[in-house]
Structure to design on (148 residues):
């Protein structure tokens, strides 16, 4: 993929509310909003072994059959979403709760949720200006506004 974008929203419990992007050079841009160990904007480089794990998880998903939205039949849960931009296609899928989405997608969500804990990140106030897919979130859960 040229870009991997991921977001997760808060819930009524301690769900990490965050946004991140990874480019094909393994650069990561992370924004921790709530219930994350790091709050604010950070950047870094994903180690090759970890990046290859993410790619293997993506390759285990049949991207062409992903639905754009999966929803549990209960309320007050977390939403997670991923956008995978390849050379030819952009794949997008989000899930509310963990219920109907493919297990492989759920595994990818977990890996991406934990990713920032396993990457050396540096505070970076310019992250918001570097985001390619800053609008990839569900309505009501935007990332912080872009600063001029």
């Amino acid at each position: 993929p040229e870009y991997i974008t991921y977001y997760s929203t808060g819930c009524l419990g301690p769900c990490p509310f965050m946004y991140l992007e990874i480019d094909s050079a393994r650069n990561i841009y992370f924004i921790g909003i709530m219930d994350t160990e790091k709050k604010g904007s950070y950047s870094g480089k994903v180690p090759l072994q970890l990046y290859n794990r993410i790619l293997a998880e993506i390759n285990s998903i049949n991207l062409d059959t992903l639905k754009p939205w999966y929803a549990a039949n209960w309320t007050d849960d977390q939403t997670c979403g991923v956008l995978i931009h390849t050379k030819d296609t952009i794949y997008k899928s989000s899930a509310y709760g963990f219920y109907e989405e493919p297990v492989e997608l759920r595994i990818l969500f977990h890996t991406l949720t934990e990713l920032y804990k396993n990457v050396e990140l540096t505070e970076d106030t310019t992250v918001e200006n570097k985001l390619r897919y800053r609008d990839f979130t569900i309505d009501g859960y935007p990332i912080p506004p872009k600063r001029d």
Remarks:
- The helical segments are 48-59, 103-115, 127-130.
